[in-house]
UniProtKB/TrEMBL annotation:
Polar residues composition-biased segments: 1-11
Name of the protein described by the UniProt record: Phenylacetate-CoA oxygenase subunit PaaA
Organism whose genome encodes this protein: Sinisalibacter aestuarii
A Pfam entry, by short name: PaaA_PaaC
Region Disordered, annotated ranges: 1-26
Span of the signal peptide: none
Length: 329
């Protein structure tokens, strides 16, 4: 099974015969679908990969508030505003659960934030694109949260207990996010001609960036093979991308919108939609910091971190006083 995965996902997995007895026992537990808990022995690579993936996910939830927060004061009705506020607050909560899950692996939330701010940790490429119109908020909910769910539902079965439990709660909320986005798109698509054009324009701009969320194609994915052997990831990037396209194209048709891909065809033989790959050079440019909003997003996060310094200092001073008091008692 591993040989097959290595072939389909690029980089290799440590062969069983090269594993130490601890590594072999660990792999057996993972293969038996046992959950790995924080105090259990785990290979260094497993710990590092989890910290990288969970923290990148946490950062994505937090940075992901920015393109939507941008529309809270401009939502078209009081009801839409209340829904968007709740959604953005949910994303902050998801960030918190995930930072807590990462902390169980022996790294602090402050360290993770510093790594985001110094550029040594990533967040999802999608949040480096701007939300220019209200229809973009619909497209973000429908496509971006839709892609997030496609990736995250299988992660509920991931091998690391705290991550798996965080994902169960997150997925429930993401489903509501996707539905509210689709509902906005439906209103826009069935509205005036100008509104329909806005909905189509939002789909045109968010389609390929949403496909990029699943990561590079399997042949270029660096981590998939080992992450799948450890059940940190359950599916390959391409498998999830295909599932997303298969689910989303009929929804676009239902909305009366056109997916911006001239080569999109239903393949009767495979039972799947054939589609054009995103422009991977654009993806790697966004990862390097050259997307339309990278600078703006990082500047906002740095400002939030600097503005919050007095709160952190106050809490630390309070914690210091309490521990002095406890020591004296
Ligand atoms: N954006 C930014 N970086 C990405 C990326 C993306 N869309 N896709 C891949 N990468 C990076 C990887 O992190 C890796 O870089 P690194 O070695 O410096 O960390 C490199 O590209 C190679 O990619 P791989 O396929 O080898 O990486 P992974 O095995 O980690 O797979 C992943 C990438 C599928 C995104 C995986 O990490 C994953 O499933 N993560 C958990 C889910 C997640 O992070 N979701 C964020 C979505 S946004 C969100 O949930 C917010 C919600 O409110 C919408």
């Amino acid at each position: 099974m591993y040989a097959q995965m290595v072939k389909s996902t690029g980089q290799g997995v440590k062969p069983r015969e090269d594993m130490s007895p601890e590594e072999r026992h660990f792999q057996d537990r993972v293969d038996a679908n046992e959950k790995i808990e924080p105090k259990d022995w785990m290979p260094d690579g497993y710990r590092k990969t989890l910290i990288r993936q969970i923290a990148q996910h946490a950062h994505s939830e937090v940075v992901g508030q920015l393109p939507e927060g941008n529309w809270i004061t401009r939502a078209p009705t009081l009801e839409r505003k209340a829904i968007l506020l709740a959604k953005v607050q949910d994303e902050a909560g998801h960030g918190l659960y995930l930072y807590c899950a990462a902390e169980t692996l022996g790294i602090s939330r402050d360290e993770l934030t510093e790594k985001l701010l110094d550029g040594s940790m990533k967040y999802s490429s999608i949040f480096n694109y701007p939300t220019l119109t209200w229809a973009d908020i619909g497209a973000v909910g429908w496509l971006v949260d839709g892609a997030a769910i496609m990736n995250q539902v299988p992660l509920q079965r991931t091998s690391y207990g705290p991550y798996s439990r965080a994902m169960i709660r997150i997925c429930k909320e993401e489903s509501f996010h996707q539905r509210q986005g689709f509902d906005i798109m439906m209103k826009m698509a069935q509205g005036t001609e100008a509104q329909r054009r806005m909905a189509q324009d939002a789909l045109n701009r968010f389609w390929y960036p949403s496909l990029m969320m699943f990561g590079p194609s399997d042949k270029d994915s660096v981590h998939s093979a080992q992450s799948m052997a450890w059940k940190i990831k359950i599916n390959t990037n391409d498998e999830l991308r295909q599932k997303f396209v298969d689910q989303t194209v009929p929804q676009a048709h239902y909305l009366g919108l056109t997916v911006p891909d001239d080569d999109l065809r239903f393949n009767d033989e495979t039972g799947h939609w054939d589609f054009s790959e995103p422009d991977w050079s654009e993806f790697y440019e966004v990862l390097k910091g050259n997307g339309p909003c990278n600078e703006e997003r990082m500047a906002a996060r740095r400002k939030a971190w600097d503005d919050g310094a007095w709160v952190r200092e106050g809490l630390m001073a309070h914690a210091g006083k309490r521990s002095h008091r406890t020591a004296a008692e």
